[in-house]
Amino acid sequence: MSQLAPAADHLLGFARLLRSAGFAVAPEQSIALLRGVTLLGPRSMEDIRQAALATLAPQPDRRGDFDALFRAWFWGDAELAAEGDSDDETRVKDGNAAPEQEAEEPRSEKGGALSSGAERLGARRFAGRGSTLAAFGRALPTALPVRRSLRSVRTRSRGEPDLRRSLRAIARTDGDIPKPPKRRRPLVQRKLLLLIDISGSMKQHTADHLDLAHTIVRHAERAEIFTIGTRLTRITPSLKAADRDAALARAAGFVEDWDGGTRIGPALAAFLAIPRFAAFARGASVVLLTDGLERGGHAEMEIALRRLSTRAHRLSLCTPLAADPRFRPETAALRAVLPFLDDLVDGSSLEALTRFILSLARPAPAAETIWRKAS
């Protein structure tokens, strides 16, 4: 789909326009829109509208906004506040789904030390080295937070009376139940969501973070890994290979914005705009590996982290800057997001990160309380 027909590009532009207006539109829905329009002909604009309604599924309370944007985009009835320009939108890539639009050819970059909001595609190779996280991997399954499962299972000893099975037994045995059956809700591991900043300012930590992500994917029951830079990329499928070097090579080839600019807020907003991705954060331990150095305004980052905090069981930001004893969250962005964080901790080394992740199940004071005392 590298050379889209003008009509297809216009339809995808409408999906981008909806996202910029706050509608949750997944890449699969954009592809479904193209297929729906193809299936219908289309014979009229109403066919396109019906295909858009069926595939993009706007919320009922925003149907009026959807219709207004549709008329403005396809009929030009009104001037658009946002033109749905793909250059301003955070592109999304998922290892399990077809990309909405093929990316530009990446180019290698030796630099990347400077933080910037401009998109700059780049490639990375991660040299083979032995992993030092075997002990962390063994400890991880029993160290992560747990919750009660929504489903119950049969049990012989402890648990609540199983009324349904008891009634069936009463009917079979004419009221004689020597030992009433029981059920209980077992403990299950909470999801662990890792969001890795791969911008140029985090370049020296990227290899360690991918090593950590690979160990987490291999040992946690439910883990999801995304990279955020100028784009949002889901790399969980790439990291499932048992061989570490092969897994990191697959991830390196799949991500396109290594060591580029920083758009933390827009990338997180894109994550939350896709329902399938946003569901990963619900009830999960969300760990954000970033220096928090957002370029430009931080309003989008603040809004995104506030929304993430309402979904997550625990929202943590690990920054390498916190390794400096003089560090204080005094940038405008960190001051704005601090009230939404459960943890703001040192993320400068694998040792610090593994120690923190293994402590996620233990309660701790909120980040704002800790850093207020430190200031």
Task: Summarize the structure in words.
With 375 residues, this protein is of the alpha/beta class. Helices cover 41% and strands 13% of the residues. The chain has three domains: 8-57, no CATH class; 151-184, no CATH class; 189-373, Rossmann fold (3-Layer(aba) Sandwich). It has helices spanning 6-20, 27-40, 45-56, 63-75, 134-143, 163-173, 203-219, 244-254, 264-273, 275-281, 299-311, 332-337, 350-357, 367-374, and strands at 92-94, 146-148, 153-155, 160-161, 182-184, 187-189, 192-197, 223-228, 232-234, 285-289, 314-319, 343-346. The strands form three sheets. Strands 1-9-8-7-10-11-12 form a seven-stranded mixed sheet, with helices on both faces. It has a three-stranded antiparallel sheet with strand order 3-5-4, with no helix packed on it. Strands 2-6 form a two-stranded antiparallel ribbon. This is VWA containing CoxE family protein. InterPro entries: UCP010256, Uncharacterised_CoxE, vWFA_dom_sf.
Distance between the termini: 53 Å
Order of helices and strands: HHHHEHEEEHEEEHEEHHHEHEHEHH
Global outline:
globular
Tell how many strands the DSSP assignment holds. 12
Major sheet attributes: 7 strands, mixed
Q: Kindly report the name of the CATH homologous superfamily of the largest domain.
A: von Willebrand factor, type A domain
Q: Helix share of residues?
A: 40-55%
- Contiguous runs where pLDDT drops below 50 for at least 5 residues: 99-114
Query: SS-based structural class?
Result: alpha/beta
CATH architecture of the largest domain: 3-Layer(aba) Sandwich
- Quaternary structure: single chain
What do the pLDDT scores average to?
83
